[in-house]
Specification:
CATH superfamily of the largest domain: FAD/NAD(P)-binding domain
Helix content: 25-40%
Strand content: 15-25%
Structural class: alpha+beta
Number of strands: 21
Largest sheet: 7 strands, mixed
Strand order of the largest sheet: 10-9-18-19-20-17-21
Shape: globular
CATH class of the largest domain: Alpha Beta
Number of helices: 13
Number of domains: 3
CATH architecture of the largest domain: 3-Layer(bba) Sandwich
Radius of gyration: 23 Å
Length: 467
């Protein structure tokens, strides 16, 4: 995706106070970050604006993919109508208002999201309304904690491949000298492969769990690093394709010198990200319709498509489907004229990952001063990470300053579908007490527990069957 300027027109270099380069010039080419090998893949040459009568396009889905599609179309003069099922934008990075027992308003969301610095396309989208990305702030490390007490992190690890992998192995306390000797370097070669096609050919039929077995990774490093990452797919490593984990490891670690440091929004998602972008769309003539689920899409009698929702049926020249897995299955299932039979069958076979739980707690006292803003965990039951929002999010920090408390968020990925919800919520809080013992004495002023099961599952052997 272009970043709002024409691909052939350079933008001046811009540096933030934290030293990160927003967009720089190198050898006459624009580079979106610190990675010297990052390059913009320009689209096919074409007009910057629609000439003549603009076509109409319905973008179905108001998550990041739908917002990105709507943005680039509207900026080029297309008449865009964005349909979003939920009352808010952002999809898996959405947020909505809630009332706390003390009468104050707060924002609940689907959970913490790290904005890694190699997310060049997403960051280019956000620059539409925040050219310097001042709405993001960097966290100093990606710390990890195992239930055994072992700690790790990535701040000291070199960010340039291949020194990043070597540095992690040499600096991590989870690697002992005999562990390094036991590794099977030949089995790890797919992690170095830059060909997506070859990675899928080699590893898609293997689970992430079994692939890690073949590498002979030490158990501690496996739990602290690879399984923390693989569970970020909201899936058990036994169900996740090893190809997906290898590509993820390449993108975040071996394939980019941006490293594993990341940014977070300074304010809740709606205020920091999506409300400004909705305004940008409106200024380009797009219509944003929230709480407007689409029922079906049918071929038009003389071309184009008819999109039916609760307010009736409208004709469009084209349609963009930017839905989550269940949403796509539902719309396609109600739209027999979309695609051919083989494509529709592949859509119907798509699976969602197991449920996940996000618990946000407003506590009556602060956590200890040295607690990081984000902590990845392993070996604490179903608890996968802990965020102290009042460390970095403005709304949470203001509440904490006013009350003397803190705002903490807990994540549990790939929760068994048989789990009893209120029992699991209590277990998650009990694990917080293990991670941060001072929270045992805290009174929970307010709690919100968000259960979802709408993330795609990248199953073993499933790549070739994707629509």
């Amino acid at each position: 995706m272009a970043d709002g300027h024409h691909p052939h027109l350079p933008r001046p270099a811009c540096r933030r106070e934290d030293g990160r380069r927003a967009v720089s010039l190198r050898d006459g080419a624009r580079v979106p970050g610190r990675d010297r090998h990052a390059r913009l893949v320009a689209p096919r040459p074409g007009r910057d604006r629609i000439a003549g009568e603009p076509p109409s396009v319905a973008v179905i889905g108001g998550g990041i993919a739908g917002l990105a599609a709507a943005t680039v179309l509207a900026e080029r003069g297309v008449r865009v109508v964005l349909h979003e099922r939920e009352p808010v934008l952002g999809g898996r990075v959405s947020g909505w208002p809630v009332a706390l027992p003390d009468g104050t308003s707060a924002t609940m969301s689907r959970g913490f999201h790290a904005f890694f610095r190699q997310y060049y396309n997403l960051r280019a989208l956000l620059r539409r309304t925040d050219p310097g990305l001042e709405g993001l702030t960097g966290l100093p490390d990606y710390p990890l904690l195992h239930g055994s007490g072992l700690r790790d992190g990535f701040r000291r690890v070199p960010r340039t491949p291949p020194w990043s992998a070597l540095g992690f192995a040499l600096l991590s306390p989870s690697f002992r000298p005999r562990d390094l000797l036991a590794l099977r370097p030949a089995a790890a070669l797919p992690l170095l492969d830059v060909s997506t096609r070859r990675v899928y050919e080699r590893l898609d039929h293997v689970s992430a769990h079994d692939f890690l077995d073949t590498l002979r990774f030490p158990a501690a490093a496996r739990h602290l690093a690879f399984e923390v990452f693989s569970r970020s797919f909201f899936a058990d490593p036994r169900e996740l394709s090893a190809a997906e984990m290898a590509l993820m490891f390449h993108i975040y670690f071996l394939g980019s010198s941006e490293g594993l440091l990341f940014d977070v929004p300074r304010e809740p998602f709606p205020q920091a990200l999506w409300e400004p972008l909705a305004g940008h769309l409106a200024r380009h003539g797009a219509e944003v319709r929230t709480a407007a689920p689409v029922d079906a899409v049918r071929p038009g009698p003389s071309g184009g498509h008819l999109v039916a929702d609760g307010d009736g049926t409208r004709a469009y020249d084209a349609v963009v489907l930017a839905l989550d897995t269940e949403g796509l299955r539902t719309v396609v299932g109600r739209s027999p004229g979309l695609g051919d039979a083989a494509w529709r069958e592949r859509v119907a076979r798509l699976r969602t990952a197991p449920p996940f739980l996000v618990s946000r707690l407003w506590l009556d006292r602060p956590v200890a001063a040295g607690r990081p803003g984000f902590l990845g965990t392993s070996g604490f039951g179903s608890l996968d990470n802990v965020s102290v929002l009042s460390r970095w999010e403005g709304e949470a920090a203001r509440w904490a300053a006013r009350t003397g408390g803190s705002v903490v968020e807990l994540h549990a990925y790939a929760v068994p579908s048989t789990a009893v919800r209120d029992v699991e919520e209590k277990r998650l809080v009990a694990q917080l007490h293990r991670v941060y013992p001072e929270t045992r004495q805290a009174r929970v002023v307010a709690a919100r527990h968000e259960w979802r099961a709408d993330c795609p599952l990248f199953t073993v052997g499933g790549h070739g069957d994707r629509p």
